[in-house]
Amino acid sequence: MTGGRDMTADTPAARADAAVARVLHDVDHTTGRGVVVDSPPGAGKSTLVVRAAAHLAEGQGPVMVVAQTNEQVDDLVDRLATRHPRLRVGRLLKSGGTLPGRVRRHGNVTGAEKLSDLGTLPPVVVTTAAKWAFVKAPEGTPWGWAIVDEAYQMRSDALLRCAGLFERALFVGDPGQLDPFATVETERWAGLTWDPLRNAVDVTLAHNPRMPTRRLPVSWRLPATAAGLVGRAFYPFTPFTPGTSSADRRVRLPVPALGADPVDRVLDRAAATGWGYLRLPARHSLRVDGEVAAALATAAGRLLARGTITHCDQAPEGRELTPERIAIGVTHNDQADAVRARLSPELAGVTVDTANKLQGREFDVTLVWHPLSGRADASAFHLETGRLCVLLSRHRHACVVVARDGIRSLLDRHPSSQPLHLDVPPKFPDGWRAHQTIMEHLDRPDFLVGA
Amino acid sequence: MSVLTTYARLRAAEAGRAEPLATVRHVHLAARPFVLIPLALAGEACAPLAALVGAERERPELLIVAEPRDRTQRFAFVADLADRVLPHLDSFTRDTEEYTGRRDGAKRILTRCTEAPQILVPNPGGIAFLRLLGRSTRFRGTEGPHAVPPGVPLLGKWLTWFTDRAEFPGSSQLLAMTEALSVHWATGQSGTEDGNLASLIGWIAPPDGHDGHEAARLAEDPALRPPAGPATDPVFDHTLHELLDRYERAGTDPLRAALRHQLEKQLRSQLAPTWDLMWRGVDLLRSLPPGASVAGRWEFDRTLFTDYAAYLAETGLPQARRDHAVGAARRLARLEDATARYELARAYDDPLVMAEHELAGRAFTGVVIATDPSRMVKGPRSALFRPLVTLRTDALPPRLELGDKVKSPTRRDQPARLLAVRALPDGDAEIDLELEGGLARKRKPPAPPGCVPEPGEELCYTVLDTGHSPLAFPDDEATPWTHGGPPTPYTPTEDDADEAWE
Amino acid sequence: MPPLSYDARKIAALTTNPGCARRAVLDAAGIDKARLAGRLGATPGAFTQSPFALTRGRAFEALVKANGYAELITLLRAELAAPVEEARVADLAAAEGDRASVRTRARATERLLKRVIAEEDSRLILDHPVLTLEIAGQTAYLEPDALSHRIGDRIHVVVIKSFAAIDGQADPRKTAAAAREAAVHVLALRRTLTGLGASADLVADQFLLVCPKDFSNRPYGRLIDLRQQLDAVEHQLRRLARAEDLAGALDADASLDLSVQGDQGPPVVSDDHLARTVESLDYLYEPGCLDFCELSRHCREKALAAGAPARLGGTVGGDLPGLDHIAVALSLAHGQAEPDEHRREVVERLRAAARLRARCLGRGVAS
């Protein structure tokens, strides 16, 4: 993505490239255990992983890449093989697994269930953390380097199971997204540096405090209208800038609004300002609130019906928004079901998913079911910073939030009062504060449309 | 909790009586449970004050500490408790049975105890207290300057083991009565209030002439129903304070004996009502038939009990203060596995639990309306025997997808696959399933009678399954650099044995 | 009878169930809620402290403070990166005499703080200081256990608690409550210092929690980050002005006067009159109230009488949006009434639950 950018002076591109160069320099010269790279949404994390993998394979010998899901592994292998067609890449498969089409098309990729079946050890081997846990290092010697992708979504115990394979690691991830998940609740390990419920980065830094943390400073995904708010609400101590200006990213709705229809009005707001907030009348509702589901489905339909055109660096002359470039983000699976059930057939290509499944993905326009909409209480789950951050940072152009009125008073009634464990550093920002920041921003005439 | 529980609570509130949340009992109940009701001195980290203990309803034994701030007396109390608990535990190690299990990576014939002990305490606070009591006693030395009776550290290790096991869903070795009852009944009060054993039982079995509301209110009066421990009633503490003071200052043995007698009387008055409640709780739980998987889980509990008793007989090192990195990760994996298995087993054992999954769309119940018991389908090599079953159900199961593997709790050995779902105009649905097994190994029709469901049969099917995959962990010595490297192995020290207990 | 002033615990409690206007008004007016509960015929619940807990708490505090806070200085050395020098202790309670009013001690505290700011006496630990904080138009007097001397140019609020930290773990709920109290103290200290022309940054946004280690009487100290608690407490204090507005909306004859005529004479205001005034204040009862509010059992009876489902817990309330009566919810669930459009989804789910339970228990839906 760096091609054709102005490499001089203090442009976003120059800053982003300098940051990547810094990371590669660290990797080449470190005498410690490795480097952590924090990346805000859409800051070129995958590009960095691909570059670092090729760089390490060339300069320091075989490198192993740890990703979290098979989907992520395949995406990564595809990018790696595309960008470096002469680099031999091994893909370890889960038992009974096969290479998907987008990976199989590359001549330089080999897939096998066992390391020994990949032939001579490929310079880059990629698979999931779960699979790595069962891999025996060749001839008992570990890899010099591992790259751990989406490291903030990896649980400490998953890292424990595979960290014996490598001596140094480059951890790459977005600290603002959802924390890893466990099905049991226990305070047994609170305060221990090796608490298995922590994420892979925190546990590694706790034991290797001198490991440097670098940051990718530019979000190429988020438009100028979103970068400031997302940064303020979710990355208060690690500022980043948008890679584009407001002039680069524009949204047009050629078909005019239907009178004073609130959905059309909120889309107009979002097209003009990058944010829209459709506020339905205050009412406590069930988790699945039919009116919110309907409003989201209608908004997706109107985006297409109004022939939405987006202009950006990739398409300066503008291109028509397609269903594939729209996402509807929700909190619970049954909310996704309710929205899908209301989508008309021509919207089948729209992605409707929970925050957990939208992590790492990118769209032009997102429509968001606010996690606190209609709720009578604000549980830790619904307040979780990462969930809101994922939902509000997937878009390249505009984001429309749909919620029932009453969220701000809900937040006032439910200040955060979490139990406090000794020796567990607080996470910033906490969900309550992040929600306040977002609502203070959205609750303004520039964005707000009442229904 | 789901809307089913919410609805049950509403009904209970309206009727003034608890509503069942289960049709079977999901916990094991031993023939001879050991009931232990501890009381602690307020303000201290872990100062035992008294306990009412025993495995016989008619013979509760009262143990007290007349000077709870005195270290020697505390150890004397723990030794007393050990004298009651350890023989009870020991009595289970004599009768054993053989079974085939894995040890050191190979199949072997092993033995396990035919029965195992079960400890019942009133509430989660009781478990937390036993955990601390275990922590403060298991490192003690039985020789040297700070020697304590051998039963003290041994009891400490057992208490630690029991409280560790209590964290595992599905384990019945140490149960808190309020939690065991709350799994099976919904009251017309909140979960917070259900933490009071007296008021919880007041809802489940209100005394004659009272409803649950009234029974619960009466139960909240500490003068009528003293708290079930380990915390005491602050008002009672004033009486206790005075007595303890007088005891400490008493100059003569007869006076001390008289005061001790008074203390015992007072403490017994605080504990006796809870003793009765505990056994009423046992009766209530016994009134439910055990779920089908309860015996299997108890068998696992028995195996673990046998193994730990053997460990204590050999090495017998106390458990570490905190888990090491590998131990913690391993334990988390076991906890997650136990949680998933217990959840599944409860649903398979109990239609009321399965109903939660039906409501969430992961299961459905229908009546068989047609079958094709001789159906053959084309397979990769040869034709496959796949009988077809069509059910009619009153709602579309939203979270089932065509091709999903499903199973029925009443036909657990018969995997089936969802072939088609047809919505009917009246809101009902017809569902086609093909049977993929459970046909007495027949490869072609006819299947023996009973293998294929008959029209008219009511069946529940669900997608629930445990996706259990074994996990590999490094050895402690191979703890990686990301987790601090190998830990120093634990060796008992003089300091451990001499830890302050003030 | 003088009104009970806010203390740090009460202010911190504002961040638990701040939606309850009744409690907000009663606390703002300094009403003794336990006595009020008694007058309303309710038991206040077990909020008295055990004599054992009191003794133990005092003994532990004395131990930490013995020998010129030697233990505290040792803990600060272990916990802070900056060098910790010896310090002198000024005991505000002792200096002003046991019977000195909080006002006197507050003035003395301020005098000493001036010296600390001016660096005339920067190595001074303030024992039993009294800080003031303006809340909803009244002055609250706060009594932190201690304020550390200036270390690395920061003053640390010290909170001494008698719950133990065992193998490095303390009760997380009690720790959280201690942190909320500490946040109130930090806030008050910062306002006092800025009032004296100093920078608010002089107060650390961490506090030192001191509690017994394991099963011993040895003190154990940990620094705890307060930034989130400060944010939450400040937010609630900003909103608090509304308590006065709420009280202003009371009837002209409303009264919460609990005093009696003469020494033991009849009450100035009748029980009925008190009850009417209390009922005119909106309350928000939830089961969690039982843990901290003396009036909670009174409100619980009112919620019971009103048929409010929320008294069964947050999950139950959350499952019944728009249905605020248990009997109504059940009659809708049993098909004895029909819901309006807004409540259709909720009622359909309840009906599904009723059908499933009836089937599993082999009984009729409403039986």
If you compute it from the alpha carbons, what radius of gyration of chain B comes out, rounded to the nearest whole angstrom?
A: 28 Å
Roughly how many Å apart are the termini of chain A? 41 Å
**Helix/sheet category of chain B:** alpha+beta
Overall average residue pLDDT of chain A: 93
Continuous helix count of chain B: 14
CATH fold call of the largest domain in chain A: Rossmann fold
Region (Disordered) (chain B): 467-502
Biased composition (Acidic residues) (chain B): 493-502
Protein name (chain A): Helicase
InterPro entries (chain A): Coronavir_polyprotein_1ab (IPR050534), P-loop_NTPase (IPR027417)
Walk me through this protein's architecture.
Chain A has two domains: 12-219, Rossmann fold (3-Layer(aba) Sandwich); 224-450, Rossmann fold. In chain A, 34% of the residues lie in helices and 19% in strands. Chain A is built from 16 helices and 19 strands. Chain A has helices at residues 12-29, 45-60, 70-83, 101-104, 129-132, 156-162, 200-207, 224-234, 262-273, 290-305, 333-342, 355-358, 380-383, 385-391, 407-413, 431-442; strands spanning 34-38, 63-67, 89-92, 109-112, 124-128, 143-148, 166-173, 213-215, 218-219, 241-242, 250-252, 275-280, 309-311, 319-320, 326-330, 351-354, 363-369, 395-404, 448-450. The two termini of chain A are 41 Å apart. The model of chain A is unreliable at 1-6 (pLDDT under 50). With 502 residues, chain B is of the alpha+beta class. Chain B folds into two domains: 3-321, no CATH class; 349-462, Elongation Factor Tu (Ef-tu), domain 3, CATH 2.40.30. Chain B has a six-stranded antiparallel beta sheet. Chain B has a five-stranded mixed beta sheet with strand order 4-3-2-7-8, with helices on both faces. A two-stranded antiparallel ribbon of chain B has the order 1-9. In chain B, helix 5 (177-184) packs parallel to helix 10 and helix 7 (197-204) runs antiparallel to helix 8 (212-219). The longest helix of chain B has 34 residues, at 253-286. Chain B is globular. The two termini of chain B are 42 Å apart. The mean pLDDT of chain B is 93. Chain C is built from 14 helices and ten strands. The model of chain C has no long low-confidence stretch (mean pLDDT 86). Helix content of chain C is 45%, strand content 13%. Chain C has a domain at 51-234. At the B-C interface, helix 1, helix 3, helix 6, helix 9 and helix 13 of B face helix 4, helix 12, helix 13 and helix 14 of C. Chain A: InterPro entries: Coronavir_polyprotein_1ab, P-loop_NTPase. Chain A: GO terms for molecular function: 5'-3' DNA helicase activity. Chain A: This is Helicase. Chain A: It comes from Streptomyces radicis. Chain A: Keywords: ATP-binding, Helicase, Hydrolase, Nucleotide-binding. Chain B: Residues 493-502 have a biased composition (Acidic residues).
